[in-house]
Amino acid sequence: MIAFQLWESLAARTTGPRIDEVGADQDLTNMPLYREKHLQHVSQQFRIYGQILHAEPCKIGHINETYTATYDQGGVLVRYIHQRINQGVFKEPDKVMENVMRVTCHLQKKLLENGARQCTRRALTVVPTHDGKSYYVDGDGGFWRTFVFVERVQSFEAVQTPAQAYEAGRAFGEFQSHLADLPGERLHETIPDFHNTRKRFAALQSAVKDDHCNRAHTARKEIEFALAQEPWVGTLLDAQARGEIPERITHNDTKFNNVMLDWETGRAMCVVDLDTVMPGLVHYDFGDMVRTTTSPTMEDEKDLSKVAMQMPMFQELARGYVEGTRSFLTPAEKAHLAFAGRLITYTIGIRFLTDYLLGDLYFRVHRPDHNLDRSRTQFKLVESIVAQEAAMHCYVDSV
Ligand code: GN1
Ligand code: MG
User: Fold this and answer.
1) Is 1.10.510.10 the CATH classification of the domain at 162-398?
2) If you measure from the C-alpha of residue 60 to the centroid of ligand 2, how many angstroms do you get, rounded to a whole number?
3) Does the CB atom of residue 273 touch ligand 1 within 6 A?
4) DSSP conformation letters of 139-208
5) pLDDT per residue of the chain (399 residues) written in tens, 0 to 9
6) Is the CB of 89 within 6 Å of ligand 1?
7) pTM for the full predicted model
8) Superfamily for 3-151?
C-alpha cells in the first residue's frame, strides 16, 4: 500500500527520494499515469526485493523504451533498468534475450575468475522474473527485461577528450576479446545482415526508386553522394568471402554512448546495449567507434562545418582498441581498421537516408527531417575520413 501511495504521489509530480542526479544525458519527462501504473505492474514481475518508489523514462537510444526505476530495498535506495524491447526492430526478442543471457553470464564468469571487484558495475546483469525467465511478456505482448542499474557512471553523446576515445576503444576491444571463447553454438543473428552494406545499399536504391513519401527531391544531393560510393561498399564482405577476415562475436552497436565511464576516474566500466551482440566482423565495431568518437559533434549536428574526423581522437581510439584485442586480432583484420570507419559511417548514413525516404519508420525522430540531417552528418564525416584515411592507416600500422 505504501508503495502505491508513493507511486501516486509521484504521479502528482511531488519529488520522490532520489539517490543522486541521473546525469546530463538522461531527461526527466512527464510520464502519463497509465504508463506509470503499467510500469509498476511490470516491475512486480521481476525478482526485485523491495518496493518501487518512482521511475523516469530514459531518452537515450533510438530503438527501445527504457526506464530507470528506484526501489526501497531494506531501507536503501536501489535502482534498476526496465526496458521494453522494440519488436518492430527485434522480431524475435526471445532470441535476443538468449544471446544477452549467454553473453552477460560469460562476461560475469570471466570477471569473477579474474578476481575483479564490483562485477555488476563491469558487465550488465539481467534480473530474472519470479519464475526464473529473462523476460516478461505483458498483456499487450510487450516484451520486458530488467537490468541491475550501474551506478556512478555516465555516458556521453559526443566524445570530449582523446582519453575518452582510448577508453571506448579499450572497452569494446576487451568486450570482443572476452567473448572470443564463448562456448556453445553460434549466437543468433538477431537482425540478419545488420551491417551488410551491400544489402543496405540495395535498400536505399529501392527506397529512391519507389519514393513512396515523395521525399527524394528534398535529398537529391545526399542520394547522389550515397549512390556514387557503390564501388567500395562490398570491400569487407568480399574479404570475408575470400576467407581473409573471420567472423567473430561482435557488439554491433558500439556508439560512444554505449560505454559507461566511471564518474570519478573516467575509466570505461561497462559496455551496454547488448541486443545486437551477434556474429559479425570486428570492423563493424571499430567502424562505429570511429563514427561516434572522432568527431566533436553529435550524430545529428546540423552545422556541418563542425563535423570532422579528428586525428588525435582516432589515434587514441585505435591504440585502446588494439590493446584490448591484442590476444586475437590478426594482421589482416588490423589492415582494414582505418577503412572500417569510412564503411560503417557510410552504412549508418545510408540507413538514416533510407529511413527518411521511407517516412521515418525505424529510427525515432525528434524533429522533421531528423533522419535527413543525421545522414548529412554521416556523409560529411565520411568525406573527412576519406581525406585522412592514409594517415589513419599509417597510424594503425604503427601501434
Ligand atoms: C540505433 O538506438 P540505438 O542508439 O541503440 C541502431 C544502431 C545505429 C544507431 C544510430 C538496433 O541504436 O544500429 O547505429 O541507432 N540500432 C539498431 O544512432 O538498429
Ligand atoms: Mg542500440
Assistant:
1) no
2) 9
3) yes
4) TT--EEEEEE---SEE--SS--SHHHHHHHHHHHHHHHHHHTT--SSPPP-SSTTTT-HHHHHHHHHHHH
5) 233 333 333 332 222 323 233 333 333 346 777 788 899 999 999 999 999 999 999 877 888 999 999 999 999 999 999 999 999 999 999 999 999 999 999 999 999 999 999 999 999 999 999 999 999 999 999 999 999 999 999 999 999 999 999 999 999 999 999 999 999 999 999 999 999 999 999 999 999 999 999 999 999 999 999 999 999 999 999 999 999 999 999 999 999 999 999 999 999 999 999 999 999 999 999 999 999 999 999 999 999 999 999 999 999 999 999 999 999 999 999 999 999 999 999 999 999 999 999 999 999 999 999 999 999 999 999 999 999 999 999 999 999
6) yes
7) 0.91
8) Phosphorylase Kinase; domain 1 (3.30.200.20)
352 CA closest ligand 1 atom index: 10
Residue of 146, 102, 147, 83 whose CA lies nearest to 121: 147
CA of 372 to the centre of ligand 1 (A): 15
| CB 276 near ligand 1, within 6 Å | yes
298 within ligand 1 shell (Cβ under 6 A): no
**CA dist 236 to 240, 242, 325, Å?**
6, 10, 19
Select from 25, 58, 63, 350 the residue to mutate for testing ligand 1; criterion: most ligand atoms less than 8 Å from CB. Answer: 63
- Comma-separated ranges of CATH 3.30.200.20 domains in the chain: 3-151
CATH 3.90.1200.10, the chain: domain bounds: 162-398
Smallest CA separation from ligand 1 atom 17, residue: 63
User: Cα(5) to centroid of ligand 2, in Å?
Assistant: 35
- Reduced to 3 DSSP states, what percent helix, strand and coil does the chain have, rounded to the nearest 5? 45, 15, 40
